[in-house]
Amino acid sequence: MHRLRRVVLTLALTLTAGAALAQGTLRIGLNEDPDALDPARGGTFVGRIVFAAVCDKLIDTDAKNDFVPQLATAWSWSPDNLVLTLTLRDGVHFQDGAPMDAAAVAANLQRYRTAPESLRKSELKPVSSVEVVDPHTVRLHLSQPYAPLVAVLADRAGMMISPAALSGDVTKTLPCAGPFKLTERVAQDRIVVDRFPGYWNAPAIHLDRIIYEPQPDTTIRLVNLQAGQLDMVERLGPSDAGTVRKNPKLKLVGQTALAYYSISINLANKGPLTNPLVREALEDSIDRAALSQVVTDGQFIPSNQFEAPGSRYWDPDHPVPPRDIAKAKALLQQAGVLHPEFSLLVGNSSVEQQAGEVLQAMAKEAGFIVKLQTAEANAQVASARAGQYDATVVIWSGRPDPDGNVAIWLQCDGFLNWGKYCNPAFDALLAKARGVTDMAQRQAAYRQVVDLYLHDRPHIVLYHARWLWALSDKVSGFVPTPDGLIRPQGMALAP
Fold first, then answer.
1. Which pTM value belongs to this model?
2. Fewest beta carbons less than 10 Å away: which of 92, 102, 128, 296?
């Protein structure tokens, strides 16, 4: 009898301890598994979600899409816009105990600018040198004015890693200066991060652990949320929004996004899409409003530009074109290719697969023969990087500066220029736009950029997204932002 009581007591204590741990463990369902957890090499949106908990940046953005201090408390331009001076926060340490000072910033920026594995080189190309003025002051010297630099430092190139880790594989420990430290990663299964007690803004952290679980099927993510196996899901399937609203134990949070979906076209292969008339016909075959209605219940915003309709840098002289099947057929006849055939690569999430099916059906009416290919997110990116695709539907999470929404895809050395579009005139227009900080002048310059890429069509933008998150009613403190990231500061989980 005493032994039975001891067993029951032990079981009760175990369950109690597990419940207590669960109170501090936030479980987030991701749309896919991130690629390399290294800010120098990463290129996926979900990677940035994980980075938001692990790697603080020099500069951040807020719910209004304004730049705000993070590891840097202030920044200023020289009168000629050739020097950006950063003042660093005092008393910050990396998760391995090393100080986050000016020397560490210089080491990180040097890696981003020069390391063979770095995808940040083009973003920091105008930075000619980094000067350590004192432990809390860094000056970035530029070869030419580069207004987007502040936005660049508010993204992966602004994420600081302990210099001691930079010579090895940083993905194993990723000792950054953020609120959570990377503990475990099991590919396609989970990423575990634990609270870093030495975080500079420790009072804002109310969670002990975050577990990220990649679950590409939106239905499965929602079922797991409803069952209590997850506490939060990102990129809820738009058709599931009504289900969440009806559940008193769940909350739906929405936010107009910087993100957009686009068709990247490979111009380096020998397929029919290398013909500009065929690309124009493909765009004419697409009804963006119908696509949004079918795939997203009309929640996404039909768009043909990298900037959202009505936003600061959107060009009203190029509204979203209507579908025109007759014109599409005439263009194909003019091109001498009545039934062009190509493969369309899409991600394996249910939303992206449905989008591919709708695009396939629309293009068929104009005469296109579209073969759908689906792939897990990292496999899709790997194929695109290798140039092994004709066309692929991609998502870009969006950036607060317009340069970050277009140069990555279309600049000759853009780090996501998988389709090998390279137009010196286009690069010259980008350089002109980067060289001015006056808002009206930048708007005029980017409208010239829009003129050119809409003419060449290396990408066909489909729509801008609306971020949708579903949360357990136990989760509080989540602040949605246009960039779609999940920032853990202020978030809490009730018992």
1. 0.77
2. 128
